[in-house]
Amino acid sequence: MGDRKMCSTVYGQESFDSAWHGLSDNVSNIILSDSTWKRLPHAQVETILLWLPLEYLCRCRAVSKEWNTLLSSSRFLNVWNDMSQNRNSWLVFLNNSSCFLYYCFSTGTWRRISTSFQSTSTSFRSKRIAYYNNCKGSSAGLLLLDKETSVYVCNPLTRTSLQLPQCLSMKTARTKGIVGGKDCYTVAASNCNSKSIEIYNSIDKEWTIVDRLNRHCHDMAFSDGFLLCLICRPPLGVMVYSFRGCNIDSIDFVASPPSLPTHSRLVLCNSSLLLITANRDYNYVVNQITVLKFQKNHANLSDSSWEEIGRMPPSVCDVFNRTTLRSRVGCSPFCECVGIGENIYFNRGGSREVVEFNVMQGLWNVLPTCPAD
């Protein structure tokens, strides 16, 4: 699960409608009407193609070599990226058939992301790992992917996938997020066995060990300039690592609530630090999910507190557990969550249900069920 940002065109909506319906209903229509498209001026074709939604942008590259070159070019993608209808964030989901999906906020539907450009060594088709959530984060259109012992940064728009070098202190990295964009990005990774934290910089193309990890670290969250670690043994709290580049500037400790369930997660949402706690029974059924917001006391950090801002209603819990109750095989007992804008999105590995919580309004919502394949 993850996040990204996506022109006004010289064409008005009315003049575009006739071309758009033939374009979006079925990609095969484009191939069948190839002669019609060839009669259009190149600039006009390019302007129309700027209205392509993400899934058609990927699929239309197969129309011709010329379209593939155009739709993969940085110049075209930069303009397409600024289109007003493309400025929604990404919510990325890996379903049980290892197909990447993203949620289209404007239409309220799930759309597929083409991964046909990935080689067999980087594709995610193994049924053995299908129920694991291999998408560890996203930023500005880049997806951070884990596959066994390898880490990849994938760009579906440019149809590229880069395997990062192996970490310095660990064979199996537990990546915790990516920040930045296609020109410059950083990746954070940790491993409880090696007790280390490493940062990858795309400019230097190498990992750097930035600090030692608390051996009781239960969960981590990564943002631009900050790495947060949730400590699950007394003293319970959050270690806040502030760094510039690959150098630690400061380390702060924030005490957590005295009663902290085992299944807790850290989430960064709209510059706020949130703590998600989940209570479940021995059958992996979630009974309650609580959202706590950190209220920082700038004068004295030790006097800071956590305020409860939301509790999942029983009716939403029933939906959240729906897939789990039908088949518990391959369903993770842990609640995965990600912050996008003012919302938090909840999911469980092996489940196709996604729940939304608006931090500002305190409202819960259930998204349409993700497609099974």
Automatic annotation (TrEMBL):
Descriptive protein name: F-box domain-containing protein
InterPro entries on file: F-box-like_dom_sf (IPR036047), F-box_dom (IPR001810), Kelch-typ_b-propeller (IPR015915), KIB1-4_b-propeller (IPR005174), SCF_F-box_component (IPR050796)
Pfam families linked: Beta-prop_KIB1-4, F-box
PANTHER family assigned to the protein according to its UniProt record, in alphabetical order: BNACNNG10540D PROTEIN, F-BOX DOMAIN-CONTAINING PROTEIN
Residue ranges occupied by any F-box domain in the UniProt entry: 34-83
Organism: Taxus chinensis
Domain of life: Eukaryota
